[in-house]
Design goal:
Elements lengths: L6 E6 L19 E2 L2 E2 H11 L4 E6 L3 H7 L4 H10 L2 H12 L2 E6 L6 H6 L2 H4 L4 E4 L3 E3 L6 H11 L2 E7 L9 E7 L5 E9 L10 E9 L2 H7 L11 H9 L2 H4 L2 E5 L4 E3 L3 H13 L5 H16 L1
Parallel strand pairs: 1-4, 1-6, 4-5, 8-12
Antiparallel strand pairs: 2-3, 6-11, 7-13, 8-11, 9-10, 10-12
Helix pairs in contact: 3-4, 8-9
Bound molecules: uridine 5'-triphosphate.
Uridine 5'-triphosphate binds next to strand 1 and helix 5.
């Protein structure tokens, strides 16, 4: 049995080049998805899994992120004066959500490098990593399953999605073996963004991890890989190859709804899906969407 997991790390220091120019002066994690920035969904997910201690790894445009999770006294006073308690509640939601800490990455040298910056804050405990541009639908819980598998197996756990073979070159991809649980596989090898036609499977790693602290020891020795970046996948591959001291790496296969908001097409899909189900907007949005899409066919 492992330790209780209490900390979430959210890397949000990437350059977001796929979304330029929107991300020229603002992190992509701050792009609005219906009425909240993407990263607020991610913090909400961590909190609903019981992780109130959140460390964000930030980059050069960190101000918007910090301000979003901080008080805005002027705005609060104005809303209070107007008696707009509903909007005041919405404004305070992100402030009161979690105990948020920040560390700068410095140069964006890759996801592995960003995770390594969490070492001082995390210490020698297992911890969760949630990518700030990857939204998992709140109706399809994933992190709680991953955390319970981490405790049960005392291993490192990643989230896997079965993707179309034409998409594997965009992800870290795992070679897997079955376990007694149909939703959990043992990972024997990993490769970052395999060239088309060379992928070992269609199990792609998506942006949720529950890592054992040995990842820091491995990351310290991990050289830059694909794209000249320090890749988390490369460190995980070493963990998978040394189960005697790392506990090995397992994948929880996710079959729910997930939106990669760092990709423009997926971002649009996320907005349409989440707006359709939105408590205030859905009833007005769905009939409009139906009319709009039938006009596309004609
Ligand atoms: P991505 O590869 O999606 O981010 O990293 P990117 O490099 O910003 O995106 P593009 O390809 O240029 O559009 C996945 C996650 O890791 C973070 C990103 O912020 C994102 O949440 N990341 C990536 C860092 O924090 N630091 C890095 O050096 C790289």
């Amino acid at each position: 049995m492992g330790f209780q997991i209490t900390k979430a790390v959210i890397p949000a220091a990437g350059l977001g080049t796929r979304f330029l120019p929107a991300t020229k002066a603002m992190p992509k994690e701050m792009l609005p998805v219906v009425d909240r920035p993407a990263i607020q969904y991610v913090v909400e997910e961590a909190v609903s899994a019981g992780l109130h201690d959140v460390l964000m790894i930030t980059g050069r445009n960190k101000n918007a992120l910090e301000n979003h999770f901080d008080r805005n006294a002027e705005l609060e006073a104005t809303l209070l004066k107007k008696g707009d308690s509903e909007r005041l509640r919405k404004v305070n939601e992100s402030t009161d959500l979690a105990d948020v800490h920040y560390v700068r990455q410095g140069d964006p040298k890759g996801l592995g490098h960003a995770v390594l910056r969490a070492q001082m804050h995390v210490g020698r405990e297992p911890f969760a990593v949630l990518l700030g541009d990857d939204i998992i639908d709140a109706r399809d819980p994933l992190l709680t399953k991953m955390m319970s598998e981490q405790i049960k197996r005392n291993a490192t756990i990643v989230a896997l999605l079965e993707v179309d073979p034409s998409q594997t070159h965009l992800y870290g991809v795992a070679t897997v073996e079955e376990t007694e649980d149909e939703d959990v596989v043992r990972i024997t090898d990993l490769v970052e963004k395999p060239a088309p036609g060379t992928s070992p499977s269609n199990y792609a790693i998506i942006g949720r991890y529950v890592l054992r602290p040995e990842i820091f020891d491995v990351l310290e020795k991990t050289e830059p890989g694909k794209g000249g970046e320090i890749q988390l996948t490369d460190a995980l591959q070493k963990m998978a190859g040394a189960p005697e001291w790392t506990g090995g790496v397992y994948g929880v296969v996710f079959r729910g709804r997930r939106y990669d908001t760092g990709d423009r097409l997926d971002y649009l899909k996320a907005i349409v899906q989440l707006a359709s189900d939105h408590s205030d907007l859905g009833d007005d949005f769905r009939p409009w969407l139906k009319e709009f899409s039938s006009a596309l066919d004609s």
